[in-house]
Write a structure and sequence with these properties.
The protein is an all-alpha fold. Helices cover 43% and strands 0% of the residues. It has one helix at residues 19-36.
């Protein structure tokens, strides 16, 4: 059985408003959420 992720909701903070920093924090947040919920890549 395959489950699709259609939306995620989470929050993080940014020390610096720069694209590279924001991208890093978003990847960190999503990775953490997927790991905590036992979601794995196909």
């Amino acid at each position: 059985m395959s489950i699709s992720v259609r939306a995620l909701r989470g929050a993080t903070t940014f020390e610096v408003d720069e694209a590279d920093h924001v991208s890093h924090r978003v990847v960190e947040l999503v990775s953490s959420m997927l790991e905590r919920n036992g979601v794995h890549h196909d």
